[in-house]
């Protein structure tokens, strides 16, 4: 099995991210995704209607920028490109360059449109034959296995379509994330080569996982 440069396989699939001091967000009874940006009118798509669009399965590894990879996951959902071509493109008022994905916990990722339209990008609602659970992004998440985990927003509640790059909140952060985040190019960091930041990112895995153990416990 070959992993992208600087990645190491882990057992299983840990819950991970910047949100780990919180339990997973509550999912509304009839969840919807707001769709906004450069559209004739903003709209909403229920997660049930999204699930009724053409679907596919995707077997893929998952790579966190911190350096761990979960291997052989089986995702199921609607290809992002199918959703875009049928539900968004007819409503556009101008050409789109970037897409924002927001989660119920306030997390956001910014994705270049061309990357979002790749064949392996899904709006996934099932993992390994089960509905997505709270740990991994219920009710629906972005899955883009060729890009680092931080692109793969969980608990989707809003997708925005933009004609220019939206403001970057972490541009001057020491961990400024790469705008493309392609795993095989090792695009971990906005300004520094991926292999240079490897040890720094790797040192964050243990403290983040310790937070996760606390966040998962019911309170
Ligand atoms: N809504 C939301 N999505 C998120 C995150 C988050 O904190 N909140 N963390 C990201 C990061 S950094 C990673 S590595 C993956 C982890 O996905 P997992 O928890 O299913 O392993 O989710 C990504 N998507
Ligand atoms: Mo990550």
UniProtKB/TrEMBL annotation:
Coiled coil: none
Record-linked Pfam families: Oxidored_molyb
Gene3D superfamilies found in the cross-reference section: Oxidoreductase, molybdopterin-binding domain
Domain of life of the source: Bacteria
Domain Oxidoreductase molybdopterin-binding: 29-166
InterPro entries: OxRdtase_Mopterin-bd_dom, OxRdtase_Mopterin-bd_sf
PANTHER family per UniProt: PROTEIN-METHIONINE-SULFOXIDE REDUCTASE (PTHR43032)
Protein name: DMSO/TMAO reductase YedYZ molybdopterin-dependent catalytic subunit
